[in-house]
TrEMBL record:
Residues in Acetyl xylan esterase domain copies: 1-322
InterPro entries in the cross-refs: AB_hydrolase_fold (IPR029058), AXE1_dom (IPR008391), CE7 (IPR039069)
Protein name (record): Cephalosporin-C deacetylase
Range of residues in the leader sequence: none
Superkingdom classification of source: Bacteria
GO biological process: polysaccharide metabolic process
Length: 328
């Protein structure tokens, strides 16, 4: 498999011109405020999950997300005595068209001593894995196959406005759990999950942000250079809606991971793979190079594709958080 993008030396200084709306912060503040109000009085609801796993606690999570709508997830945590101190938490978001799956599929963070929260991605869960449980009860205008162009005519209607809101509010709900140390809630995810983690990290001021092979960054550049979905969904849409480019770019500017990265001051550990033929490495570097954080690192996997560093990157994440007192 060949390298798919710019040479590493150019990626390290790649800063595309990503437009930023003047009302970006106001747009998101209003979005979150309205959804908090819609879900007022309802916190995260946890019930024991049906699972044969006994050595860690696995709970079925429901919380009010965008518009107060119920969103599912899993909480996995060590078995602790009632008098033990609250634990750090890692909130994880999933890849494109995957769901939360079956209870107990992901136990690594809990087995390492932390609370792990895994969010279902609304409307997704039928492309791979073992399914999802959160509908997206919203329609939209004409769209290409996939999620990138759903509601593309207006940022208020776009699919990722709802998903990012779910993610940011989940971080807030996790902070309120009695067994979680509210000052040590970090976010992570791969591909789409990495893009969601960047947005949630900025909107909810997470303690640390750890995206892997992050998608949803530098949308305009991505749709120009990507050779496969999901970025090519935008190109297919514009091939039909030939006069919609300005509309697409305006909507994308409210959702672009580069604009969220500009607002992240927390410690950040990114990863990228230089043979990635799904998410062009330059789009991930665009967000990484835009970080406001002074404490940031990026792990580069030169000979990997979209799978990235996998478990090796997880080990780096554990070390990164422990070094900063953000994980057990």
């Amino acid at each position: 498999m060949p390298f798919t993008d710019l040479p590493l030396v150019e990626l390290e200084r790649f800063r595309p011109d990503v437009r930023e709306p003047a009302d970006f912060d106001a747009f998101w503040a209003k979005t979150l405020s309205k959804s908090r109000a819609a879900g007022a009085g309802r916190g995260a609801d946890l019930v024991p999950a049906e699972t044969p796993i006994t050595e860690v606690v696995v709970e079925d999570l429901t919380f009010p997300g965008f518009g107060g709508e119920p969103v599912k997830g899993w909480v996995v945590r060590p078995r602790r005595r009632p008098d033990d101190a609250p634990l750090p938490a890692v909130v994880e978001f999933n890849g494109y068209n995957g769901g939360r799956g079956i209870a107990g599929e992901r136990t690594g963070w809990a087995l390492a001593g932390n609370v792990h929260v895994f969010m279902d991605t609304r409307g997704q869960g039928s492309g791979w894995g073992t399914g999802g449980d959160t509908p997206d009860p919203h329609g939209g205008g004409p769209a290409a196959h996939g999620w990138m162009t759903r509601g593309i005519e207006d940022p208020r209607d776009h699919y990722y406005r709802r998903v990012y809101t779910d993610a940011a509010l989940l971080v807030e709900h996790v902070r309120a759990l009695p067994f979680v140390d509210a000052g040590r809630v970090s976010v992570t995810g791969g591909s789409q999950g990495g893009g969601i983690a960047i947005a949630a990290g900025a909107l909810a001021s997470a303690a640390a942000v750890l995206p892997d092979v992050a998608f949803l960054c530098a949308w305009e550049h991505g749709m120009q250079v990507a050779t496969s979905d999901p970025f090519t969904e935008l190109a297919r849409y514009l091939a039909v809606h030939r006069d919609a480019l300005e509309t697409v770019l305006t909507t994308a500017s409210y959702l672009d991971g580069v604009n969220f990265a500009r607002r992240i001051t927390a410690p950040a550990l990114f990863s990228v793979a230089l043979m990635d033929d799904v998410v062009p490495p330059s789009t991930t570097f665009a967000a990484y190079n835009a970080l406001a954080s002074e404490d940031h690192e990026i792990a580069v996997y030169p000979f990997n594709g979209h799978e990235g560093g996998q478990t090796r990157q997880w080990l780096r994440q554990v070390e990164f958080l422990r070094a900063r007192g953000l994980a057990v």
